[in-house]
Amino acid sequence: MDNQTIVLTNEDGEELNLQLLDVCEYEDKEYAILMEVTVSDEAEIYIFEVVDDEDGNDASYYEVEDDDVLEAVFEIFKDEYQDVFQFE
């Protein structure tokens, strides 16, 4: 996956610089796994549902509120990247 950086604005109006780590499919939906761009050794991971517009040109990122979906997508990511990242 490319070193693509995405800037999202949170509910407080603060911009988050996030690196796109991967996009995976779970139950016929796509989820983006993003990591906060930081100099710290401990970076926060974010998971958003990816929804393409009608033309397929632009994607929108939606917060995932279902804990079961979050856990399942994160487990897929951990399985694929266990040799790249250290997970607690």
What labels would you give this structure?
88 residues, alpha+beta, 1 helix, 17% helix, globular
What's the topology here?
Elements: E1 5-9, E2 15-26, E3 29-36, E4 45-52, E5 59-63, H1 67-81
Provide structural commentary.
The chain is an alpha+beta fold. Helix content is 17%, strand content 43%. It has 1 helix and 5 strands. It has one helix at residues 67-81, and strands at residues 5-9, 15-26, 29-36, 45-52, 59-63. A 5-stranded antiparallel beta sheet has the order 1-2-3-4-5. The protein is globular and about 35 Å long. The mean pLDDT is 85.
Can you describe this structure in just a few lines?
The chain has one helix at 67-81; strands at residues 5-9, 15-26, 29-36, 45-52, 59-63. The chain is of the alpha+beta class and 88 residues long.
Major β-sheet profile: 5 strands, antiparallel
* Strand coverage percent: 35-45%
Alpha-beta classification: alpha+beta
Total number of beta strands? 5
Proportion of helical residues: 10-25%
What is the average of the pLDDT values? 85
Choose one word for the global shape: globular
Which blocks of ≥5 consecutive residues have pLDDT under 50? none
Strand numbers in spatial order across the main sheet: 1-2-3-4-5
Rg, Å, rounded: 13 Å
Number of separate helices: 1
Terminal residue distance: 23 Å
